[in-house]
Amino acid sequence: MPKDFDAVFAELRPLVARYADEGVVKSDEADDYTLLGPEPDEKGRDVWVGSVQIKKNYVSFHLMPVYRFPELLDDISPALEKRMQGKSCFNFKEVDEELFAELDGLVERCVDKYRAEGLF
Predict the structure, then answer these.
(1) Residue 106: pLDDT above 80?
(2) Which pLDDT score, from 0 to 100, does residue 3 have?
(3) Predicted confidence (pLDDT) per residue in 12-26, tens digit
(4) Beta strands of 1-120 (E only): which ranges?
(5) Which long-range contacts (CB under 8 A, 24 or more apart) does 9-14 make?
């Protein structure tokens, strides 16, 4: 595991972890942090908020509210959009303070949307 990935993980983890007191921490390991909503959805499924995982070639930041509510991505920068893989995952190989700050704002909007929808 490259040393830089530990630094990336350390910077990204708090973006999700700051909401831990409102949700359920599913995983809190050195290479995986996952946060769920406090209650299952209307179909009894876990409500995934976000996770940060160290993978072989990058650090993945999964933000599931953007999968459920894609309009949350309407105003992200082209630079952040370039980091997307799939519909709700952003990949990073190094610390990028500017993109992490933008991602932090996106996480806040996502949690606010989940709260408004009664999911968080």
Answers:
(1) yes
(2) 67
(3) 999 999 999 999 999
(4) 24-28, 32-36, 48-54, 59-63, 84-85, 89-92
(5) 9/33, 9/52, 9/54, 9/59, 11/95, 11/97, 11/100, 12/52, 12/59, 12/61, 12/92, 12/100, 12/103, 13/52
First to last CA, the chain: 33
The model's pTM: 0.93
CATH classification of 3-116, choosing from 1.25.40, 1.20.1250, 1.10.3470, 3.90.1150? 3.90.1150
What is the C-alpha to C-alpha distance for residues 54 and 61, in angstroms, rounded to an integer? 9
Taking the C-alpha atoms of residue 87 and residue 30, their distance in angstroms, rounded to an integer, is: 25
Q: Report how far residue 87's alpha carbon sits from residue 69's, in angstroms, rounded to the nearest whole number.
A: 10
DSSP-derived secondary structure letter, 37: -
Classify 82 as helix, strand or coil.
helix
